[in-house]
Amino acid sequence: METESKRDITLYGDSVNIVRQCGSALSDVLQSKFGCVAIIEGVGSGPGLAQQGRPTVAPEKRLAVVLRSGVEVSVWKADLTNFQVDAVVNAANVNLLHYGGLALALSNAGGPQIQKWSNDYTSRNGSLQTGDAIVADAGLLPCNKIIHAVGPQISRQPTVYEVDVAEKLLMKAIKSILDKVREHRLQSVAIPAISSGIFNYPLPQCANNIVTAVKRYYENSSGPLPKAIMLVNNDEPSVTEMERAVRTLSAPHMPPSYSQSAASNSRSYAKTSSPTLQMGTVSLTLKRGKIEDQQTDVIVNTTTKDRDLSQGEISKALLQKAGPTMQQEIRGATLRRHVITTGSHRLQWKNVYHTFPPYRQESKSQEILSKLVLECLWLAGVDRHQSISFPAIGTRGLGFSKREVAQIMSDAVVEFAKNFLDKMEVYFVIYPKDDETFKAFEEQLRTLQQKPSHSSSAVAPPAYGFREVLHHSISPSPRISLTSSCEEATREAERWLSGLLFKSSGCVSIHNNFILHFGEREHQQLSRLSKEGVSIEESFAEGRAGITVRGNPSPDVVVAALQVEAMLCNVQREFIQEEEDAMNVMTTRNVTLERKMLPQSSQEFSGRSTSFKTAGLRILKVEKVENSTLSMLFDMKKTQLKCSTPLQTMFQRIPAQFREIVSHVGFHAECAPPEDPAYGEGIYFADSVKKAMEVWRKPHGEYLHFVEAEVMTGKSFAGKPGFILPPPVGTDPLDRYDSVSGRPGIAVIFSGYQALPKYIITCEVV
Predict the structure, then answer these.
(1) Local confidence band at 169 (pLDDT 50, 70, 90 cut-offs)
(2) Most confident of the following: 250-259, 411-420, 462-471
């Protein structure tokens, strides 16, 4: 059984911006070509990028306010691809090419009709202008309409003038959306943070402008009004900024937030029972209570390193309240140094930070505990939370003394406050009956209150700004993590991706015969990808189709090339679906597929080693293909051809990306065009591995992939260039040879059902 393989690719220079522009398309290509899941980190948040590799967000309503006109404006954390609403808004580009971010996610979820409708629209009407919005059918999305709106795109380090111009265009885009809502008498619409993320519009201003535009529109609008305007995003920073903007603009009509109420309650509580320490914008309050009953934005949990929430008093209490889905989430979540973040599930918090405190006797345990608290605090700052609750970490069963824990945790908050510039309310929550621990923390806070500078013995972090601290302390460095069940797949994906991102010199060549399946839609898309400085040229020579992307600057060339690769992946998926549909009709059964990995000790594995070794290759793995539908069609073809000649065991060499196509729908000429199609335009096979290396000479990567098949050659004739079918046997044009042949050992068939894939074999050169 294969173990999971993971490889990280560090991004730097132009590669960061390339991935930021087309991260979703890149993930799709890596999955389609190599079977690798790609997780993109550290390139900036925004629609699409924040979504990659993450589970669907359960809809969570954060805030709602009713305007004087009666329209409710609400803030949601949710996934727009499955959000129940009359219409969702797509953050589109002027050409309505849905190749990245939210646009790709909605297009994938809504089905091919989303892009088809968009292509039809632009072919009839031309490109949109920034600030425009149009209404389209929502396809398979769970809403009635999709509104494509074009927000402004600005440079990564914009001037004040650029932001001012963009502000007017963003307000225009929101007005255009709301005009469409009125025209179509829609009752509810979901609007994301248009222009933030990869379009580079600053998120706080983006939220302010969207909320302001909505408020102004419905203060002055007449005619039919919708019931609800929903501001919906799936990433926490966007949700938090939208919540802040709605709360700020509607402050006179809104109840106080929990943070405001908690601060007020904490101050009155401190007068009678416990101290509150104010350090600039950060307040630290000690209180009695159960951690699972707190209502802060974040709750900190302590648990075991095996992530079992049924162990430990705090974990068990949280698990009981949150439900089993929290245990499921933490099992698959990513550890950020000392912290794992999960949702709150059935509870009122925004996040739970699960920590793994050390035992006192461990090396540097005090330092680790301090860093653990600091990481939780900075992580809350990164996620734009305003309040966080800690239990007394390490006082139960880990060997720390209560005074020791009180000092370490308090000093960590003091150090955090020295560099944190936004508001944060920190609570140390002590179990109600634990008087000894409460007293230790109380003494420590009163000691700190008496120090004018709130100094501590801990080493202060570097004295640079908030954003730099976040970058160095919490935010992951820009990278792509590739994961697959196959080591060869991740290595091939890494090699391909590194060559594209770091070694491109203004020219990228793509060789793939599925280019021949491009129709009017794809050629229009290629035309739109050609822009100033970038040219796209198609070619077809010696049976091989290609696309060459050239231009300057090089990053624009790579972005265009990745979008071409994404188009090819989409065409290949459509091809597989069409072939499967045809197979289902012919056999009246669904296509079923199983690929079994053979152990190296098996006879099926070892029996093939000699023939490959003779060709200078070493077998790494053998997968047995069992596709009952293809077997049935193969037998039907045998009956149709009245084939009496013995079946031949033959080989075909294919690129890694076509293994799935061959396994699912059999052999097709597009998957393995020979170096020289000297015997016709059919599907080529060789009777030995050595001969297959001659027919397919060009390297496809570090590994070589072969398909071993049973081939039905039947009555054969000498092939020649240009044959698209075998020639007639006699004068009857319907009576044709079953195949053609070339030099000894090469057969060419013209129906994929004349060959049955039996094994897929992965090798490397010895």
Answers:
(1) very high
(2) 411-420
Are 151 and 210 contacting, i.e. CB atoms less than 8 angstroms apart? no
Cβ pair 88, 190 in contact under 8 A? yes
* Sheet of 617-626, strand order: 594-597, 617-626, 755-765, 704-711, 648-654, 683-686, 746-749, 739-741, 716-718
| Whether the Cβ atoms of residue 585 and residue 731 lie closer than 8 Å to each other | no
> CB count, 10 Å around CB of 15?
23
* Fold type of domain 594-765: Phosphoenolpyruvate Carboxykinase; domain 3 (3.90.228)
CA dist 277 and 303 (Å) reads 28
Look at residue 543 and give its three-state secondary structure: coil
Residues 6+ apart with CB under 8 A from 220: none
End-to-end CA distance of the chain: 24
Res. 253: pLDDT tops 70: no
Residue 50 — pLDDT band, cuts 50, 70, 90? very low
- Residue 438's pLDDT is what? 92
The string of pLDDT tens digits covering residues 105-152 is 888 788 878 888 888 888 788 889 999 999 999 988 889 899 999 999
189/217 Cα distance (integer angstroms): 14
Mean pLDDT of the chain: 82
Quick check: 91 and 192 in contact, CB under 8 A? yes
**Whole-angstrom distance, CA of residue 267 vs CA of residue 273:** 10
Residue 271's pLDDT is: 35
CA distances from 656 to 205, 446, 491, 534, 703 (A): 46, 66, 12, 29, 8
Tell me what the mean pLDDT of segment 304-319 comes to: 81
Provide the CB-side half-sphere exposure for 650 (13 A, CA). 24
Which of these ranges, 376-385, 486-495, 747-756, has the smallest mean pLDDT?
376-385
By C-alpha distance, which of 748, 597, 586 is closest to 667? 748
Question: What is the fold, at CATH topology level, of the domain defined by 504-585?
Answer: Ribosomal Protein S8; Chain: A, domain 1 (3.30.1370)
Domain at 258-473: CATH code: 3.40.220.10
Region of residue 551 (left: phi > 0; alpha: psi -120 to 50; beta: else):
left
Rounded CA gap, 450 and 144, in Å? 62
Task: Extract the tokens encoding 33.
Answer: 């070509």
Residue 130 and residue 172: Cα distance in Å, rounded?
Answer: 9
- 83: three-class secondary structure by DSSP: coil
> What type of residue sits at position 382?
V
Distance CA 538, CA 756 (A): 33
Q: Do domains 60-253 and 594-765 have the same CATH topology?
A: no
| Residue 460 scores a pLDDT above 50 | no
pLDDT at 273: 44
Residue 476 pLDDT: 52
pLDDT computed for residue 261 by the predictor: 38
Q: Which CATH number fits domain 60-253: 2.40.10.220, 3.40.50.720, 3.40.50.920, 3.40.220.10?
A: 3.40.220.10
Confidence of residue 486 (pLDDT cuts 50, 70, 90): confident
Tracing tokens 């390139």 back to the chain, one arrives at 43
> Interior CA angle at 31 toward 571 and 191, to 5°?
80
Beta-carbon contacts of residue 594 (< 8 Å; ≥ 6 apart):
625, 626, 627
Q: For 55, list phi and psi in degrees, rounded to 5.
A: -70, 160
74: tokens are 């609400």
